[in-house]
Amino acid sequence: xxxxxxxxxxxxxxxxxxxxxxxxxxxxxxxxxxxxxxxxxxxxxxxxxxxxxxxxxxxxxxxxxxxxxxxxxxxxxxxxxxxxxxxxxxxxxxxxxxxxxxxxxxxxxxxxxxxxxxxxxxxxxxxxxxxxxxxxxxxxxxxxxxxxxxxx
Length: 152
What we know:
The protein is of the alpha+beta class. The protein has helices at residues 14-19, 26-29, 118-126, 129-149; strands at residues 2-10, 33-40, 49-56, 59-72, 76-85, 89-101, 104-115. The chain has a seven-stranded antiparallel sheet with strand order 1-7-6-5-4-3-2. It is globular.
């Protein structure tokens, strides 16, 4: 299993950063996501489900993303999701935004990737920890860039 938790203070108001995590903007911070379609409930509800298609090179993978937690207040916003990709990996990701002040937001990105079958477990043992850390940092960089350099 691979686990991570990284945080970063972003020079943007909490509502502007949170807007990037809405369905309409998800491709801005997750460019490999080709489709993101709500299939159950609403995007702001626990139990909401989305059909998502992700591209890795020439390969497309489609899976269902379920919202496990959702909180939205002026000072704190939180979304936790889970999905199984390739019938081999269960991914859980959490996005927590906390208002630092009117112009700064702390984003904490945490999660885990766990093998769910023999192939997935074997691949987890071979996984490159530094590669995962790089992916996490690239995600935080992308959110910061989108929040601070463009109109949300």
